[in-house]
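Write out this protein's structure.
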Amino acid sequence: MKVLLLGKLRSVCRWVEDIAEDLTLAGHIVHLMPYRDIRIHKSIERLMLWPAIGAPLAVAIARRMHRLAPDLVLAIGPFQWFPPALFQHLSQVRSRPPMIAWIGDMFTEQAASIAALFDAVAYTDSGLVALHNRFGFRPPAAYVPLAASRSLAALAGPHAAWASHLAFVATPTEQRRAMLAGMADPVDVFGPGWQHASGLAQHERSGRRVGPAELLDIYDSHLGVLNIRHEVNVLNGLNQRHFAPYVLGRPVVTDAQPDVTRCFEPGHEMLVYRHVEELNEIYARLQRNPDLACRIGVAGRRRVLAQHTYAHRLDTIAALAGIKDQHMET
């Protein structure tokens, strides 16, 4: 399949880059065009999409779409990142391919005008699908969770001996701080802001931003990867920490999000806790029995590679767009 991929480049999570790399590995032809790039000042980006001067970036992307003749246009990111001038322009192009948005963050009813520019909207969180329907947004919606790119294995360095701690790489939130404060055993915590958090003296904290290669090395060198829900952006869904560690065969310990059972078998492919006492018990069990971490990691890796790569997600999105039998895995 030929895909025109639109998104923000060089974000912390590398969502767009991971999609492009995995689809390419699967044999798809991917043309990546950014509508946001952190290297470019926002004022310049706004100028390039200013209707009064003809929205030159929108015109350039529309011309490239016409020249490439993709089967699908896939726009990635939160609704609040989407420049209205760009997608208004693309939606009005005659004989254009299906245009799908893939959304991974909370939104308000004000996003209706952006959603209406797309032929369908995919959401990484089943709760966001329900929100879309409750607001009465015009296009059809579907649950399409996040996934992993098989390219991550090549980014990781040589395998290191496993530490006896879980790793947690994330931004601080009130819920995350409270959960970590209640943990009995130390966790290696990474991310800007954690160095200033109080009540977490039992944990080793590094307050720097972690790059993609270092992130994978952190996953690969720890007993497992801890996940604590971001209470502001997530309703039922999973984030990239539920999938990426399994490319390296590392197990995930996560809170009991409703969407977990839609993607993994708890207790066999992922360890799930409902409260901090249960998290402490799971952590202690892993430290007593590192072989359990290995078994969970192997089972989770098998599941991710079989069902949860971005190439698998493209099959779902293509079907949502009415495109059949386009998978080109080799």
